[in-house]
Design goal:
This protein has about 500 residues and is of the alpha+beta class. The protein has 2 domains: about 270 residues, 2-methylcitrate dehydratase PrpD, CATH 1.10.4100.10; about 120 residues, 2-methylcitrate dehydratase PrpD (60s Ribosomal Protein L30, Chain: A), CATH 3.30.1330.120. About 50% of the residues lie in helices and about 5% in strands. The chain has 21 helices and 6 strands. The strands form 2 sheets. Strands 4-3-5-6 form a 4-stranded mixed sheet. The protein has a two-stranded antiparallel sheet with strand order 1-2. A hairpin with a 4-residue loop joins strand 5 and strand 6. Helix 7 runs antiparallel to helix 8, helix 11 runs antiparallel to helix 12 and helix 15 packs across helix 18.
């Protein structure tokens, strides 16, 4: 068991030297849109930026029928699989169980529009089911993420796509197309508004992006008209919300809501409202008093061009995988310590120093276990590995005296020299230094961890991660069947087959 138990040092060390292909694709194949968005290039205004609402509405409307390049299909399949594996693994964690209980209390049963709460055999109304499934998808720190946009698309977009496709009897190909356009909008909307603009306004990218992404995916599946989509975007704008106070959450419940459940519920609701005939502001992305023209998003790092290059790149290649069940910025330190383990005498450890770029204080004292580097270092040293359950255990972080004693020996400090130059993609890195009482010292610098967009996992590595996550819950045979079915999702006549495979 290589990915989550993380005991084999050779694997951890070798990962630093991998060539890091985009699932075996060339860089141009992974980024380029081929024919997929080529027809939109003539629609996109270059200067000034106008008619955004109608342009984006047409892109979403046409996403259900335009050709999709094979390179994008490969990437989308793997992200769907990664999300399903996360849902299976997090099914019984509290963010998931609370959301499921709420959904069942509101609309449980097998009504006309009921959808399966993913990972279970239970059903609720389509909106409530998608909400509960998304909460499960981000029940812990193991699903995919876009570091350049500060969003995590999979839980909301995939949950909405599967809920709609199941209730409407739609195909795997329709789901794949919906997921692709959903990922595009989840990532591009925060970039258009400005990452710093959002942060300065205390508005969470993590909630804004998935609302629009889930809605785009739903609209693609519902075959909404351009006019309906323009109204839908207005209802997304009215619901788009979330603050950075999720950083104060200690149990990953509110975080799961902001990152996943909220966007799934709001985005799907907006699409269903448009389908039902709800009308409103047609040009919310262009109107002087519309959403995107707010003074909060004007100037600064506002980047409307990110909404204008659909024909040049895909956000799928900007989406990473979490190799370990911990927050993205903590992954390099975890990886580095695991690689040092065979050389360390744990009982002799007197000090551990983790140097990292960015806001080190956030990961020095985080209340959430999977984000607290002092806790993660302690359990890795004690257990000689990192497992999924311990990485999420607040009880152990607060109640294990051996863990707390080791945490006192860990320092987490900011290292500005590890910051990437302006304009370069963020990869996250760490330097781990371990001192022993006898004078022995161990040190490793981890420039990146496989999984970041700059050094992506291969398809085979994503498959293996999914197997690691699902096998304890579904058994080896069924877990492999989920992987095989997802990797051929385009050929599924009805998505319900895949939904049943992950149910228990």
């Amino acid at each position: 068991m290589l990915f989550l138990r993380c005991v084999l040092v050779a694997f951890a060390t070798r990962a630093l030297a991998f060539s890091s292909p985009n699932h075996g694709l060339s860089e141009s194949e992974a980024a380029g849109g081929g024919e997929y968005f080529s027809k939109f290039s003539t629609l996109v205004p270059r200067a000034p930026v106008t008619n955004l609402t109608s342009t984006l509405s047409k892109i979403i409307a046409d996403s259900a029928t335009v050709p999709v390049p094979d390179a994008w299909r490969i990437l989308a399949r793997s992200h769907i699989l990664d999300t399903l594996a996360s849902i299976v693994a997090c099914r019984d964690l509290e963010p998931s169980t609370l959301a499921r209980e709420l959904a069942l209390s509101l609309s449980g049963g097998r009504g006309r529009s009921a959808a399966t709460i993913l990972g279970t055999h239970e059903q609720a109304s389509i909106v409530d089911a998608a909400f509960a499934s998304a909460m499960a998808g981000h029940g812990a720190e193991i699903n995919d993420f876009v570091p350049s946009a500060f969003v995590q698309p999979g839980p909301s977009v995939v949950s909405v796509a599967l809920a709609l496709a199941e209730t409407r009897g739609l195909s795997g190909d329709a789901v794949l197309r919906a997921v692709i356009v959903g990922y595009e909008f989840t990532s591009r909307i925060p970039k258009a508004l400005g990452i710093n603009n959002l942060q300065n306004a205390n508005i969470a990218n993590h909630g804004i992006g998935p609302t629009f992404g889930a809605a785009a995916a739903a609209a693609s599946l519902l075959r909404l008209s351009e006019e309906q989509i323009s109204y839908m975007l207005g209802y997304c704008a009215q619901q788009a919300s979330g603050t950075w106070q999720w950083l104060l959450d200690v149990e990953h419940i509110e975080k799961s809501f902001v990152f996943a459940g909220m966007g799934a519920k709001a985005g799907l609701s907006a699409a269903l409202m448009a389908e039902a005939g709800f009308r409103g502001v047609e040009n919310s992305f262009d109107s002087e008093k519309g959403f995107i023209t707010s003074k909060k998003f004007t100037g600064g790092d506002e980047n409307l061009e990110s909404l204008l290059d659909f024909g040049n790149k895909t956000e799928l290649s900007e989406t990473g995988y979490k190799r370990y069940p911990v927050g993205g910025p903590t992954q390099p330190a975890v990886h580095g310590l695991l690689s040092l383990l065979p050389n360390i005498t744990v009982t002799e450890v007197s000090k551990v120093v983790v140097e990292m770029p960015g806001a080190a204080d956030s990961f020095r004292s985080a209340n959430m276990p999977a984000l607290n580097l002092k806790y993660l270092v302690a359990i890795i040293l004690i257990d000689q590995r990192l497992d999924f359950v311990s990485a999420q255990s607040r009880e152990r972080m607060l109640g294990d005296q051996e863990v707390q004693a080791l945490m006192l020996k860990v320092e987490v400090v900011e290292d500005p020299s590890q910051e990437p130059p302006p304009g370069e993609a963020r990869t996250e890195s760490a330097r781990v230094k371990v001192e022993e009482t006898g004078g022995r010292r161990h040190e490793v610098y981890v420039p990146y961890v496989k999984g970041y967009p700059s050094h992506p996992m291969s398809k085979e590595e994503v498959d293996l991660k999914a197997l690691e996550l699902m096998e304890p819950h579904l058994g080896d045979k069924r877990a492999r069947a989920v992987i095989a079915t997802t990797n051929a999702i385009d050929r599924l006549p009805r998505i319900g087959e895949l939904v049943k495979l992950i149910s228990r």
